[in-house]
TrEMBL record:
<keyword id="KW-0812">Transmembrane</keyword>
<keyword id="KW-0732">Signal</keyword>
<keyword id="KW-1133">Transmembrane helix</keyword>
<feature type="signal peptide">
    <location>
        <begin position="1"/>
        <end position="18"/>
    </location>
</feature>
<feature type="transmembrane region" description="Helical">
    <location>
        <begin position="235"/>
        <end position="260"/>
    </location>
</feature>
<protein>
    <submittedName>
        <fullName>Uncharacterized protein LOC108255611 isoform X1</fullName>
    </submittedName>
</protein>
<keyword id="KW-0472">Membrane</keyword>
Length: 297
């Protein structure tokens, strides 16, 4: 006798809610808005996919509470706008953000930063500085302005303080706050792209133009360059301050002397006028006295 065991499979239908995932580009150190136009009548929370236990914003019918660096006002929530505002974007805040109404995901937003774009014009022989927004596993590649050379050629990889470069750049490249490439040449003109390996994102693009020297103009060996400010830095600051103070004292003495001279001239003039008036009065008195004497005789 054989015993047979029967297995009954129950197929339970399930409903999968599709949430449109948006991608938002922000600018470094600026505010950014993660949009969510779904109106939530219950409790609304915003979290990061990597840290779902860390609630960034929690809103209810009573109030909204936000973590430092994020904000969603209560008035905004009551109006049905569930968008989250990031106050100061940086590279550590990149990633997937989720908004949940009660326990249902209603919005998903991938936040990233727009690549830093800059242009540098240098002369042959100068160093090329390729800015590194961060140094956590990034690749630096080069696309020459000359189409003959291969495009997007990887030249260096950076991992924090470690740097590995291709043979052509091993002796030229060094890591400071930037990736510095010594002895720039016309062949170095082009685009330098910094790629975040972990997030597979372009975080910086540096366009380098090489300024070619004019063959007709050659500096004369008899002409010495004008001294710049750095060459005159041997004068101590206190000497300059002392000279200014002496100059101010001299000016003050000259002004006081001039004022005293003008005042003395006025006083002398006044004394002369008083003496003249006194002399006239005395002569007048003498004349009157002679007149009376003659009448009496």
């Amino acid at each position: 006798m054989h015993l047979c065991a029967g297995v009954i499979l129950l197929l339970v239908p399930c409903v999968v809610l599709s949430v449109d995932r948006q991608k938002v580009f922000g600018n470094l150190h600026e505010s950014a808005s993660l949009p969510c136009t779904v109106q939530c009548s219950g409790e609304l929370t915003w979290t990061r996919f990597q840290k779902q236990d860390d609630v960034l914003v929690r809103c209810s019918s009573v109030s909204c509470r936000s973590k430092d660096g994020f904000i969603l006002s209560y008035e905004q929530y009551l109006k049905g706008n569930s968008s989250l505002t990031m106050l100061k974007a940086d590279y550590s805040l990149r990633g997937l953000y989720m908004a949940k109404c009660v326990s249902e995901t209603v919005c998903e937003v991938v936040f990233t930063l727009s690549p830093l774009e800059m242009t540098r014009v240098i002369a042959p022989g100068e160093a090329i500085d390729v800015v590194l927004p961060h140094t956590d596993l990034v690749d630096v590649s080069f696309t020459a302005s000359d189409a003959v050379q291969p495009s997007n050629l990887q030249i260096c990889s950076v991992d924090k303080e470690k740097i590995q470069c291709s043979p052509d750049y091993k002796e030229r490249a060094s890591l400071l706050n930037t990736l510095q490439i010594k002895d720039g040449d016309v062949s170095d003109s082009g685009n330098y792209t910094v790629q975040d390996i972990v997030n597979d994102e372009t975080i910086a693009i540096v366009t380098v133009h090489m300024r070619e020297p004019s063959p007709d103009i050659k500096p004369s060996p008899d002409i010495k360059p004008c001294p710049d400010i750095k060459q005159q830095e041997g004068v101590p600051v206190w000497v300059v301050v002392l000279m200014l103070m002496v100059l101010l004292v001299v000016v003050a003495v000259l002004v006081v002397g001039y004022v005293m001279h003008v005042r003395l001239r006025r006083e002398v003039q006044q004394l002369r006028e008083n003496a003249e008036n006194s002399r006239l009065a005395l002569l007048q008195q003498n004349g009157n006295l002679d007149f009376h004497v003659s009448q009496e005789l």
